[in-house]
Specification:
The complex is a heterodimer of chains A (about 300) and B (about 550).
Chain A lengths: L1 H27 L7 H19 L2 H24 L5 H24 L4 E2 L21 H5 L4 H19 L1 H11 L1 H6 L4 H28 L2 E2 L6 H11 L4 H24 L4 H5 L1 H22 L4
Antiparallel strand pairs in A: 1-2
Helix pairs in contact in A: 1-6, 1-9, 1-10, 1-11, 2-3, 2-4, 2-9, 2-10, 3-4, 3-9, 6-7, 7-9, 10-11, 10-13, 11-13
Chain B lengths: L20 E10 L2 E11 L4 E5 L6 H8 L7 E6 L2 E3 L4 H6 L2 E4 L11 H6 L5 E2 L2 E2 L1 H14 L15 H14 L4 E4 L8 H16 L3 E5 L3 H7 L2 E6 L2 E7 L5 H9 L17 E11 L5 E11 L2 E6 L6 H9 L6 E6 L2 E2 L5 H6 L2 E4 L3 H5 L6 H6 L8 E2 L2 E2 L1 H14 L16 H13 L5 E5 L7 H16 L3 E5 L3 H7 L2 E6 L2 E7 L4 H8 L33
Parallel strand pairs in B: 3-10, 3-11, 6-9, 9-10, 15-22, 15-23, 18-21, 21-22
Antiparallel strand pairs in B: 1-2, 1-4, 4-5, 7-8, 11-12, 13-14, 13-16, 16-17, 19-20, 23-24
Helix pairs in contact in B: 13-14, 14-15
The chains are: A mainly alpha (about 300), B alpha/beta (about 550).
The complex binds adenosine-5'-triphosphate and magnesium ion (MG).
């Protein structure tokens, strides 16, 4: 029971972690990426279609990644070069991408909503011999897909890069003060575009984790607001990789719990399925209180 | 047009550069405002060159052009005797030119070391080589004789240190020409002296320095050459020793009169503001104000003198309510306001001129009109909840005229004003409508010679109309000219209350905590800053 919840919580966290890390990087560069939902959905579709066409999950994942990089880059250009408001542009992307994908599904594939693809290869699960049956530990690390392990690698690597690489220092400087950084000769717009591309690519990989991970199909509602949950996660984690990822795992846990409770019965399914979202609201409220008490310390 | 022509002299070799950096016939307009008109400037290599002029004379605009942040409508930037078009800061950096702007460009979220190397980080195997960075930083600060804790977060260090880091950053990046826009404006006298020593040592090491200042004493004392701008035009260039402070002031203002800086005292009436045993802590919970009590009467200016970091900032914040008092009370006309919100205090007749005009004094992105009426006194302009455009326009004009602000249109954003003019907007707004109490913190910071006279006049007028004024200033002479009484703070406590006529040495002794000045050196002048840091600096954080 515990093992099952742990395993499912971690699996459900993977799409969130990828999207939230992307959003966190973009945030560190000074842009709040509301469009994570759109990038995820794009990645999920391209991942599914290309995996189906080639029968190779890795090619599918790469295709998703590139598609997300393109939507992320486009969105960033609108913000940096055309001075679009990041909130409006992000929301616009979510709406437009959703609409375009719905149209493509109907016009291109002749389906509405759900796309089942013949020959689609799902993400492989890597069982670790000897560990798989150990309680808790097995659930923690065995039977995970490659994107899970990518998250495990990305969290420390990103934290290290932010601190110790040129890219990281310049990114943080740009996010903290765009005018000061550009007057020092940093190419702040390029830096922001780069961060936007990374955000799009990572969020799209999160989408791939959805379509090629658990289910092996594409549905136009499959992100179900996860882009916004990712937004809450990096807000809670103050855009630092580890706390951001941990916040995602917390939401993943409530998601797993919710699924579990559905099968137990006795509660209204509709109410139970709102559990993860209620968790988001609670966590955000707690974050708000924490920030408030931080600033209130000045007043007395 | 170019009287100080920079054309190369026949026969002089290529090595003998006459103009390291300068401008030839540079003009730049912003709409109707002609910020630079046919400006000529020529800075010899290896010299300290001051640029002076009134608020809005076009000094910052010219510096931005020299650094490639802005382009002239006509005319040219000259580098090494050559006319060139500087299209971006990157181009200027490539010609080894660096600028510290009027607004600090330190990034508070980064450490001082990160701020220093930003843009030119030493890397080894793809990783920033922090050890090398630190070594170079320490060499740099040692070579100019300043002491900096490079690992500290920038947000936690004093403005003086941040200013030094900004200058060293230019040196680190190989700048040979350092352009500094009002580097001493926000510094206390002792810190300013240290900075000027830093400039001289950079010059002695062969670098070229351009600096802007309204403090004419330091200009006359440090600069090898002085260029005077007036209304966007170059008036003249003067060499060191050719002019004194008064002569320079006259050149800056031209035909117009400089209001004679004079001493005048008020005619105090009834007690208005009572501060009773107030204590307060800073952001890091260090006690900064310790049981401070005093009274201010109507028609009186009470000066507050203290060495930087001895509680005067906290006192100003506690009076207006930005900072809560840990204990004690404040009464305005008998009613307790010690726990009241800022809004309640303002409605009770409290005005506030913040030392931090960019953040607390103005909303830089909003128009001058909005900034001019943005106080609770706004209610007086409304009829049934609606603001009448005509009444608003009248009030805006009244506020801006009152402080003689130089502006284009009242719908321009406050950020478009020159630094000194921004300060005037705040003064105009806060002194209009007979405030009961006015808390004025560093009101003449960054203001030109004539502007200082205006602002003093505004303060005196408010006083004569019955306001009780608490004046915080780092300029002892300003305090002595304006104050009826001077309260001296030392380590957060009241070290003494002196009459406005007190001598500099009397005040100075109390500021250093010597309660009987006669015992010590009676000639002690402006005291040096005994605390190496600042209240916000972790190292200056002794508990008082
Ligand atoms: N971006 C801008 N938009 C509109 N007006 C501007 C802009 N920048 C400068 N100005 C105007 O140009 C004039 C010169 O400004 P500048 O900042 O160069 O003055 P300054 O000599 O540096 O004054 P101060 O001593 O107060 O800093 C001012 O009247 C200012 O309002
Ligand atoms: Mg200026």
């Amino acid at each position: 029971m515990i093992d099952a919840i742990i395993a499912s919580a971690l699996t459900l966290s993977v799409p969130l972690v990828l999207a939230a890390l992307g959003g966190a990087i973009h945030r560190r560069a000074g842009v709040v990426n509301i469009g994570l939902e759109a990038h995820m959905l794009t990645g999920a579709l391209f991942g599914a279609v290309v995996s189906g066409a080639t029968g190779n999950w890795a090619l599918g994942a790469l295709a998703g990644l590139f598609a997300g990089a393109v939507t992320g880059g486009l969105m960033s250009l609108l913000i940096t070069r055309l001075k679009g408001n990041e909130i409006i542009v992000g929301l616009g992307f979510n709406i437009v991408v959703f609409g375009v994908i719905g149209y493509v599904l109907r016009a291109g594939f002749g389906v509405s909503g759900t796309l089942q693809i013949e020959g689609l290869e799902r993400l492989p699960r890597l069982d670790i011999p000897g560990v798989a049956d150990v309680p808790v530990l097995g659930a923690l690390i065995s039977g995970k897909d490659p994107l899970f392990w990518l998250c495990i690698v990305l969290v420390p690597v990103l934290a290290w890069l932010l601190k110790n690489s040129r890219w990281g220092v310049r990114l943080r400087a740009t996010g903290a003060s765009e005018t000061a950084s550009s007057s020092l000769g940093l190419r702040t717009l390029d830096i922001r575009d780069g961060a936007g591309i990374i955000a799009g690519a990572l969020a799209a990989l999160g989408g791939v984790a959805l379509s090629l991970g658990t289910v092996g199909l594409f549905n136009e509602n499959m992100t179900a607001g996860r882009g916004y949950v990712a937004l809450a996660a990096f807000y809670f984690g103050r855009s630092r990789p580890l706390p951001t990822a941990l916040a995602c795992v917390l939401f993943g846990f409530f998601d797993a719990l919710q699924i579990r409770l559905q099968t137990v019965g006795g509660f209204s399914a509709d109410i139970i399925s709102t559990l993860p979202y209620i968790a988001v609201v609670v966590v955000l409220a707690l974050t708000g209180i924490r920030e408030y008490s931080r600033s209130a310390r000045k007043l007395s | 047009m170019s009287s100080t022509s920079t054309a190369s002299v026949p026969g002089s070799g290529p090595a003998a550069i006459r103009c390291r950096i300068g401008a030839r016939g540079v003009s730049r307009s912003f709409g109707p405002v002609r910020a630079n008109v046919d400006v000529t400037l020529s800075v010899r290599p290896g010299t300290v060159h001051a640029v002076v002029g009134e608020n809005g004379a076009g000094k910052s605009t010219l510096m931005r052009i020299l650094y490639g942040l802005d382009q002239p409508d006509s005319g040219h930037v000259v580098i090494d005797d050559e006319e060139i078009a500087l299209t971006s800061p990157r181009a200027a950096i490539a010609r080894r030119i660096g600028l510290v702007q009027q607004e600090l460009a330190i990034i508070p979220e980064l450490s001082l070391l990160e701020n220093l190397v930003l843009g030119e980080e030493p890397v080894r195997f793809g990783r920033i080589d922090w050890a090398t960075a630190l070594r170079r930083a320490e060499e740099l600060s040692a070579s100019v004789g300043v002491d900096i804790d490079w690992k500290a977060g920038a947000a936690l260090t004093s403005i003086a240190i941040q200013q030094q880091v900004e200058i060293l950053r230019l040196v680190y990046r190989g700048a040979d020409v350092l352009i500094l826009d009002e580097p001493t404006a926000v510094l206390a006298p002792a810190q300013a002296e240290e900075l000027l020593r830093l400039l001289s040592s950079l010059r002695d090491a062969g670098r070229t320095v351009i600096f802007i200042s309204h403090k004419l004493d330091e200009v006359v004392g440090v600069a090898d050459h002085i260029t005077v701008l007036r209304s966007g035009r170059t008036i003249t260039e003067i060499a060191r020793g050719e002019i004194d402070r008064e002569g320079l002031a006259a050149l800056i203002v031209g035909d117009s009169e400089v209001a004679e800086r004079s001493v005048s005292r008020g005619d105090p009436g009834e007690t208005v503001l009572v501060v009773e045993g107030v204590s307060a802590k800073d952001d890091r919970a260090v006690l900064r104000l310790d049981d401070v009590s005093f009274e201010v009467r109507s028609g009186e200016i009470l000066g507050v003198a203290a060495v930087a970091g001895n509680g005067q900032e906290e006192l100003a914040e506690v009076l207006i309510g930005i900072r809560g008092a840990a204990s004690g009370d404040i009464r305005l006309d008998g009613a307790s306001i010690g726990r009241a919100s800022i809004r309640k205090r303002r409605l009770a007749g409290l005005g506030y001129v913040s030392a931090d005009r960019k953040h607390e004094g103005l909303a830089l992105g909003l128009s001058l009109a909005d900034n001019s009426i943005a106080t609770p006194a706004l209610h007086g302009l409304a009829r049934g909840g609606w603001l009448g455009p005509r009444r608003v326009a009248e009030r805006v004009k009244e506020v801006l005229d009152r402080a003689a602000v130089r502006y284009g249109s009242s719908s321009d954003p406050a950020s478009s004003l020159s630094g000194g003019n921004q300060q005037r907007v705040v003064l105009g707004r806060e002194t209009i409508g007979n405030p009961r109490v006015l808390v004025a913190s560093q009101p003449t910071r960054g203001v030109d010679v004539r502007g200082i006279g205006y602002i003093h006049e505004l303060l005196r007028r408010a006083r004569d109309e019955g306001a009780a004024i608490v004046l915080f200033s780092e300029e002892l002479d300003e305090l002595r000219e304006l104050s009826d009484r001077i309260v001296v703070l030392h380590r957060g406590q009241v070290a003494g209350m002196l009459p406005g006529e007190a001598s500099r040495s009397e005040i100075g002794a109390l500021m250093l905590g010597n309660h009987s000045p006669e015992d010590d050196n009676p000639d002690a002048d402006v005291p040096d800053d005994p605390t190496p840091g600042h209240p916000r600096s972790p190292r200056g954080g002794e508990t008082v």
